[in-house]
Write a structure and sequence with these properties.
Pfam families: AAA_31. InterPro entries: AAA_dom, DNA_Partitioning_ATPase, P-loop_NTPase. This protein has a single domain (13-259), classed as P-loop containing nucleotide triphosphate hydrolases (Rossmann fold). It has a 7-stranded mixed sheet with strand order 3-4-2-5-1-6-7, with helices on both faces. With 260 residues, the chain is an alpha/beta fold. The longest helix has 18 residues, at 242-259. Helix content is 43%, strand content 14%.
């Protein structure tokens, strides 16, 4: 991984990686953004708020974890108690496991939207907290938006990706209006992009009608899928791949937007 010179950030950033549609690249973006930030020297926490635990599975075996974010939501453990280290320097993980899904079925209490926001107050040592959200408007997505300073929306340049944009924008605006007035949309990140196709050229301007779009996009390619199978981030699996270079450039662009 090409190292960028570390620059101290002005504040701590909590970034929700979210899209109510599945298959848009949320988990891939959460993993590789976290690793890129850590590689730049920023102390980073990846919080896996998806009961599918795909982010967690890159760094640990969720089935073997005694503690996870389930314990934070159920009030049986603190966030500090469930955080585990990873093989990536400067990167820690707040893992998920399938039991997290039981939280929603157990019923929602009045404090439910604030669990993650309150938990993050106990870990001021992190420069960045990246939240991988489930592909639904669940209590976990709401928690992420309540806790977040910024939102990144991974999206493919295809028609079905556009269909959920209105609902996502309305959800973000509702959280901003009612609970988290400081919440900001950092932008949409186009993923699995097939450059120079008619569809891409047609859809990109439509997405920009909903959200600002990052200049950097992530190309379609086999390296991403192969890295998942190998349980590696893209920088460890294929550091010279186009996607590794694009995720690093995206991270640099994001920091520039946040610090502007």
């Amino acid at each position: 991984m090409r190292q960028s010179a570390r620059t101290d950030v002005k504040k701590r950033y909590c970034i929700a990686i979210t899209n109510q549609k599945g298959g848009e690249g949320k988990t891939t973006t959460a993993i590789n953004l976290s690793c890129a930030l850590a590689g730049m020297g920023h102390k980073t926490l990846l919080a896996d708020l998806d009961p599918q635990a795909n982010s967690s599975g890159i760094f640990a075996n969720p089935d073997r974890l005694e503690l996870s974010l389930y314990n934070v939501f159920s009030g049986t453990s603190t966030l500090k108690e469930i955080i585990v280290g990873t093989e990536v320097e400067n990167l820690d993980l707040a893992p998920s496991k399938i039991t997290l899904a039981e939280i929603e079925s157990a019923g929602v209490n009045v404090d439910a939207p604030y669990v993650i926001r309150d938990a993050f107050q106990s870990v001021p040592e992190y420069d960045f907290i990246i939240m991988d959200c489930p592909p639904s408007l669940s209590i976990f997505t709401i928690n992420a938006l309540v806790a977040a300073t910024h939102v990144v929306i991974p999206a493919q340049a295809e028609k079905f990706s556009i269909d959920g944009m209105t609902g996502l924008r309305n959800t973000i605006n509702s959280i901003k209006r009612r609970i988290n007035p400081d919440l900001a949309i950092a932008g949409a990140l186009l993923t699995q992009l097939k450059p120079n196709t008619v569809l891409s050229k047609t859809i990109m301007p439509v997405i920009s009608d909903f959200f600002p779009v990052f200049k950097t996009s992530i190309s379609e390619g086999v390296a991403i899928g192969e890295s998942h199978l190998a349980r590696k981030n893209i920088f460890m699996y294929a550091p010279e791949s186009r996607q590794a270079k694009e995720y690093l450039t995206f991270t640099e662009e994001l920091i520039g937007e946040l610090e502007a």
